[in-house]
Amino acid sequence: MNSNNSAQMDRMPQPTRNDWLSILALGLIWGGTFMVISVALRGYGPLTVACARTTLGAVSLVLLAVAMRRTLPRWSAALAAHVAVIGALSTALPFFLISWGQQSVPSAFAGLSMAAVPLFVLPLAHVFLPDDRLTPRRAAGFSLGFAGAAMLIGPAALQGLSAGLPQLACVAAALCYAISGILTRRCPPIDPIVLAAATLLVGAVILVPAMILVEGVPEPARPDAMLAIVALGLIPTALAALLRVTVIRSAGPSFMTLTNYQVPLWSVLFGVVFLKESLPLQFFAALALILGGLAVSQRR
Question: Which residues of the chain have pLDDT under 50?
Fold first, then answer.
């Protein structure tokens, strides 16, 4: 890492008004994503859903980058490695884990799992980002939220591995997002649109052959599932990836995690109102612990 990048990371990033507006938009977009995934799964398998949204999102952002004539970076081994790992951990792996998990758990549960992202970011940022240290207050918030995440997974995971795998898959997706957020902040200089497009391309390269080998080439399905696939690729994938990268590069990964206050609330609302999902009291107790941990750790 050169001295300019080190000095940039040592300065505490200051969120702008656009950063705050992006956070609000992302909370709403990602909160509704899990409902749309549930609709897409009515006609397609989890790998196909993950692959279709990634590929469509990649194509959209590549075309946008070309139309806007964005500047391509000088590729180095460090930049290529960052893009490859960020692409795998921010698109391919979590998209599949969420889609696979949602075959067995309500969409609201998947949304609640995303509240764990800031909890994973706290210790990672302490180690890898000089301007994001884990203070005693943040450590207390992490402990409180971790208890909520354990409650969210539930005792089924302790009774048998297979019983808790869908829940663990959703929480593992949250961990993937946390790690990719840290890496995005540490990534060498690159245009945000180019970075978002490149990471989605990486995800597509991983998921396309996996989909063909496991689920085959997708065929036309019921109209609502096909419409859901298109919506997933354009809004919570292409548009959200662009907003996410821009916010992290501008204000840092810890600020980005403020979306996770909103995502669980929106996901529960959409799941209950539109999909008629019923949630046990355990989910709401877990949400209270996680949001309480976030409030303690993020209090200014």
Answer: 1-10, 156-162
CA dihedral 12, 17, 19, 24 (to 10 degrees): 130
Longest CA pairwise span in the chain (Å): 54
Residue 45: DSSP 8-state = -
Rounded to 5 degrees, what are φ and ψ at 37? Answer: -60, -40
**Burial (CB count within 10 angstroms: exposed 0-12, middle 13-18, buried 19+), residue 230:** middle
- Tokens 């539109």 -> residue: 274
- 224: its two tokens: 């609502």
pTM of the model: 0.82
What pLDDT is stored for residue 160 in this prediction?
A: 43
Q: How far apart are CA 126 and CA 140, in angstroms?
A: 14
- State the amino acid at position 178 in one-letter form: A
Distances in Å between the Cα of 85 and the Cα atoms of 52, 125, 173, 187, 236 are 20, 17, 14, 11, 20
φ, ψ (nearest 5 deg) of residue 10: -75, -20
| Burial class of residue 234 in the structure, from the number of CB atoms within 10 Å of its CB (0-12 exposed, 13-18 middle, 19+ buried) | middle
Asked if residues 230 and 56 have their Cβ atoms less than 8 Å apart, the reply is yes
Q: Which helix (H) or strand (E) is 263 found in, with range?
A: helix 259-274
The CA distances from residue 104 to 47, 73, 99, 216, 250, in Å, are 15, 42, 10, 22, 37
